[in-house]
Amino acid sequence: MIPREFDKINGADIEGLVASAIAEGRNIEYKQQLPGNSDEDKREFLADVSSMANAAGGDLIYGIIEKRDEKGKSTGLPEKADGLTAINADTETRRLDEIIRSGIDPRIPGFRIRSIDGFSSGPVIVVRVPKSWALPHMVTFKNLSRFYSRTSAGKYQLDVSEIRSAFAASGDLRARITGFRSERLGKIVANEAPVPLPASPKVILHLVPLSISDPTVQFELQQLANDPNLIVPIQPQPYNNRYNVDGFLSFGISGTTSATYCQLFRTGVIEAVDADLIEQSNAVNLIASTSVEEIVINAMIKYLETMKKIGVLPPVIIMVTALGVKGFAMATSSQRHNMNPKHKIDRDTLVLPDVLLESYDTPTDVVLKPIFDALWQASGFPGCHHYDANGRWTKSSDF
Predict the structure, then answer these.
(1) What is the pLDDT of residue 62?
(2) Are 41 and 96 in contact (CB under 8 A)?
(3) Tens digits of per-residue pLDDT, 24-47?
(4) CA distance 185 to 16
(5) Closest CA to 290 of 338, 330, 232
(6) What are phi and psi of 320, to 5 degrees?
(7) Residues 315, 357 contacting (CB under 8 angstroms)
(8) Most buried by CB count within 10 Å: which residue of 177, 254, 258, 287?
């Protein structure tokens, strides 16, 4: 895999592969031409993509001439980066995207395709396939029904026992994520969080990369100490930060307790808690819907940008939980001054459905819509009042 953030790959990076004689292997494969439109070409392409997703991820690079031995056989070493002749890069990118989306099941989350200009014959096209945690992916094009994985020698077809193991690993991942969330919620309820929290309603955000299942994946935290703005509480306020046994922590400054903190674990997981976002009232408990959603959206944007900067690759599971909210209702213009709202949340702990962020390019408000819909549904409404016809969040007169 090219050792650079995907959006920042440039021609020098491609030329560097040639100059350094980086051989094909488990994470990288060179192709002189794009796959054609024949069924066989499409099957071969899908086998390449799915094999990387089912293994460790990697890059397919099109527009590279490989060296040949005396018998004309490919050596796996790049000889020259000429680029692709006489192609429309946008058209080909869309074509490859459609082949992947329609020919592999389940769909591979987070794959990326882009063209890079600056070569003698035309652009180079790179297909980046992340290591998938929704294993195993099957090539389904024209009813092929084949599973592939990859070693340093290239792709190979999985046998029955390997397929069974892949399905088991996928189930283990789901259990691990669910278990992580339950364990962290238990610690917060028991007031065993990194800082003492007040006994008030809380909003809890968890951002969990699917790489959590790999114990070898650890991220460098030094840049967090160098730039304290990378990890901040949910709401803007004075805060301190420090290393701790789990990773790096920022927390609000407020006497003997702190109403908010954000913990970045070495695994890339972010946990953020705020005990001031939902305010209690002796008269009526209303969740200030517009401001709460806006704050959560802005906080999520910051946290995703931090994950991107430290090298966390999507997909990322986003989870939101509300504690201590039994009897609360969502504030709307019509019931803003209503002392007895008709619909109230019927439980103290509201575990909202998790969502999958496949790419950092996806707008955060779009990703959060199912979570906000579920929050409103818990208060008796069909869905969130603050999304327009295009599925984008907008401010309203609600508070």
Answers:
(1) 96
(2) no
(3) 988 999 999 999 999 999 999 999
(4) 47
(5) 330
(6) -130, 135
(7) yes
(8) 287
3 state DSSP class of 77: strand
State what percent of residues in the chain have pLDDT above 90.
Answer: 55
Task: Indicate the pLDDT class of residue 5, thresholds 50, 70 and 90.
Answer: confident
Task: Name the amino acid, one letter, at 70.
Answer: E
**Cα–Cα dist 257/30, whole Å:** 56
Pair 264, 247: CB distance under 8 Å: yes
| Residue 192: Cβ within 10 Å count | 11
pLDDT in tens, 52-71: 999 888 999 999 999 988 88
pLDDT, residue 399, reads 56
Residue 292 corresponds to which amino acid?
Answer: V
- Structure tokens, 366: 């779009």
Q: What is the pTM of this model?
A: 0.71
d(CA 57, CA 28): 9
CA–CA dist 87, 84 (Å, integer): 7
Q: How far apart (Å, rounded) are the C-alpha atoms in residues 134 and 210?
A: 9
| Long-range contacts of residues 339-345, Cβ cutoff 8 Å, at least 24 apart | 339/283, 339/284, 340/284, 341/284, 341/286, 341/379, 342/380, 343/379, 343/380, 343/381, 344/379, 344/380, 345/378, 345/379
What local confidence, expressed as pLDDT, does residue 84 receive? 95
- Angstrom CA distances, 84 to 39, 231, 314, stand at 21, 42, 29
Phi, psi (rounded to 5 degrees) for 41: -65, -40
Quick one: average pLDDT of 243-266? Answer: 85
Instruction: Provide the 3-class DSSP secondary structure of residue 343.
Output: coil
Chain position carrying tokens 């990288």: 28
* pLDDT at residue 256, as a whole number: 58
Residue 277: half-sphere exposure toward Cβ, Cα within 13 Å = 28
Distance CA 295, CA 290 (A): 9
Helix H or strand E segment including 306: helix 289-310
Q: By CB neighbour count within 10 A (0-12 exposed, 13-18 middle, 19+ buried), where does 107 fall?
A: middle
